[in-house]
Amino acid sequence: MDVLVIGTGGREHALVRALAADPGVERVHAAPGNPGMAQLATLHDVDPMDATAVSGLATGLGVDLVVIGPEAPLVAGVADAVRAVGTPCFGPTAEAARLEGSKAFAKDVMTAAGVPTAAARVCSTPDEVEAALDAFGPPYVVKDDGLAAGKGVVVTQDRSLAADHAQACGRVVVEEYLDGPEVSLFGLCGWNEVDGTTVYPLLPAQDFKRIGDGDEGPNTGGMGAYTPLTWAPDDLGDEVLRTVLQPTVDEMAGRGTPFAGLLYAGLALTSRGVRVVEFNARFGDPETQPLMALLDSPLSPLLLGAATGSLAAVPPPAWKPGAAVTVVMASKGYPEGSSKGDVIVGTESLADDPFVHVVHAGTALADGHLVTAGGRVLAVTAVGTDVADARARAYDGVAAISFPGAQWRRDIAAGR
């Protein structure tokens, strides 16, 4: 089959790598892609937000499957446009993608489905925000109701900072603080009228949102991730499937808006049990990188099965032994801004390493040189016999790469 992947970042590069290695995939296309994907896929200069252009490209190429990576095109209905021209598309409808596009909508669905989550209030005025902050107390958790590229959440002891964030966002969700470690657990979801909803949970993973070691500093899109989580309960995947993923997709189907694609559950393992922090409607970045490194099943049947309603007929995903760790290298000034055009050296030294590979995110080519072109520039992913082994290899890979102002966390998967 031929597959078209929509997006520019590390998540999309990781998916392209997995599809290019899939014996059932003949050709991989990416739009618009990045220099790393260009080594594995044919790139097409198409705006991911242009539904007409994306659906037209899919038709023109005659691909068998379109995979939409980022959240913004999904919320904007690009997947709907692709399906409307008769091409299977991995990614939920715009209506179903509201699980990520609106925190308030997601809370409503969770309440109706009985999914455990933080108590919350939806606020549109300063008075409502102040009342919610009074009700929940510190640490204060304030979330932009809409898409914010992973940076719309403030968790702080500083009440004025929480109130200022709410005012800058407009409509927000103010929540109670959830204690305990956070975990990401993805569910591949399919639906048809005969089988109903089918959900296959992937391995639990953990990402690191803040820019600095020890979880200091502002939130980012994610500075690293690893899997598996040897410290998490062995039955975590089964519990989350039973209490979170399955009830949510069943509720969506009951509303007449079935969710088909990737449901990302951001979880807190609190002293009172598992609680949902947030839902996303697509693969997470950077968790996708270590997950794809350990996936032992062909990816295309899983994605096509979810896209066509035949996931129940596809075997659940299988996993390689060992562990995988991803460390993100970001540009100078990130996350407040980013430095562009800085020359990147050293990635070529890892090209033949059987245990380590580089996933591009914010990169570009200029005058024959690989240069920075975004906040999160690239990610080094390594596999090993266990987390410690994979971590050591990942950081050896980071040490081989340099660009002016490069920053990365030194504590990804430390002590695991």
Proportion of beta-strand residues: 25-35%
Let me know the average pLDDT: 95
Low-confidence stretches at least 5 residues in length (pLDDT < 50)?
none
Radius of gyration over C-alpha positions, nearest whole angstrom:
20 Å
CATH superfamily name of the largest domain?
A: ATP-grasp fold, B domain
CATH topology of the largest domain: D-amino Acid Aminotransferase, Chain A, domain 1
- Adjacency order of strands in the biggest sheet: 3-2-1-4-5
Q: What helical percentage do the residues reach?
A: 25-40%
Give the number of domains: 4
Largest sheet: 5 strands, parallel
Q: What's the shape?
A: globular
What's the helix count? 12
Derived from helix and strand composition plus strand pairing, the structural class reads alpha+beta
The assembly state of the depicted protein chains is single chain
Number of strands: 22
The separation of the N and C termini measures: 39 Å
Notes on the structure:
With 416 residues, this protein is an alpha+beta fold. It has four domains: 89 residues, Rossmann fold, CATH 3.40.50; 55 residues, ATP-grasp fold, A domain (Dna Ligase, domain 1, 2-Layer Sandwich); 132 residues, D-amino Acid Aminotransferase, Chain A, domain 1; 77 residues, Alpha-Beta Complex (Glycinamide Ribonucleotide Synthetase, Chain A, domain 4). It is built from twelve helices and 22 strands. The chain has a five-stranded parallel beta sheet with strand order 3-2-1-4-5, with helices on both faces. A five-stranded antiparallel beta sheet has the order 12-15-18-22-19. 54% of the residues are buried.
